[in-house]
User: What shape does this take?
Amino acid sequence: MNLYSLLQKRLAAGRPVRVGLIGAGKFGSMFLSQVPTTQGLEVAAIADLSPDRARAACRAVGWTEDRIEATRITDDAMAMIAGPDVEVIVEATGHAPAGIAHARRAIHLGKHIVMVIVEADVLAGPLLAREAEQAGVVYSLAYGDQPALICEMVDWARACGFKVIAAGKGTKYLPEYHASTPDTVWGYYGLTAEQARIGGMNPQMFNSFLDGTKSGIEMAAVANATGLTPAPDGLAFPPCGTHELADMLRPGNAGALHHAGQVEVISSVHRDGSLVRDDLRWGVFVAFEAPNDYAVRCFQEYGVVTDPSGRISALYRPFHLIGLELNVSILSAALRGEATGAATGFRGDVVATAKRDLRMGEVLDGEGGACVWGKLMPAADSLRSGGLPIGLANKVPLTRDVPRGAPVTWNDVRMDEADAAYRYRRDMEAAFA
Assistant: This one.
């Protein structure tokens, strides 16, 4: 509640919080747009594969030429991390293996790391968070993205003494989306390929939002950070509006949940394609239970919307502002030494699952591609079956056929065992098995 006042004290002491940003894409640009109006926070350096593109991004969000000239802009992220002029690193490249490498470098050098790439967090976040704690620095999910916002709501409920029944987010979902490919995705969004091209939209990225992969990744991150767990069969995507959250999000025969303490994603459309009233497509939620009869009575007295028992209620936030809110994570790390969400265990995993019958010799094309989508499952089940994490299901050949709907396993692919991200993931599995 006092990040701003803490920041002003740093400013008055002549010690602004100094940030190094890796990746000046959309998320990075949204963050950069807030820097000129946040006194006490400075971007000392930006690393991007194209320094000219990074400078153009700064101009596009309103930076002055003087500010751009005063910022160290480079294409060498590892050198930027090592610079003495940065204390918090923001990893926003969108590339999970690079994100892991940059995070490990930052931790080794005693820098806080804010991990924008949820894919990297799900691939190896539990081990990164453990290494950061041992090094005395903060490893954090990025506030403004949905997982960190969900973690905050879970923390609020528990700090108040409520039992958390469920937490998650909203999205648009139909079962047929799991088979969507970059060639079919725009029809589901109501766009033509030409409209998407003019808008600069990446079909594979948008397809990962649609086919269920991104939802699985985000809920795995929440599970690993909060202790909530996935249902055995992953996400059910029940259609649900904000007016019925408390009634719908109950376990067992009473509601849509498999168990209390679950991560879930709710759909903004019914299975027949009709729109859900009061949908939460862009938002996040937490469902919680009154711990005693007195709290139940207080719910009634203060107009709290509940399920029929009067015991379960829910709060929601209707939207999230992505990189415009990232300062909260940066300042929390630098000024409080706290993460806005970080893995405390390995509870949820996202396994590559065949979109169609796949044949030996085919090369997987990664998240949002034409071959596989990422299915959320309990981490113990993933480890037991040897599931191939979606974050490593790119540019790897199949060594045998995989039928539609089946998980892809380590035994189904030929991995480059010298690859650093592969080795680190296997280390993480061994550490948390």
Notes: DSSP finds 17 helices and 14 strands in the chain. The chain has a mean pLDDT of 96.
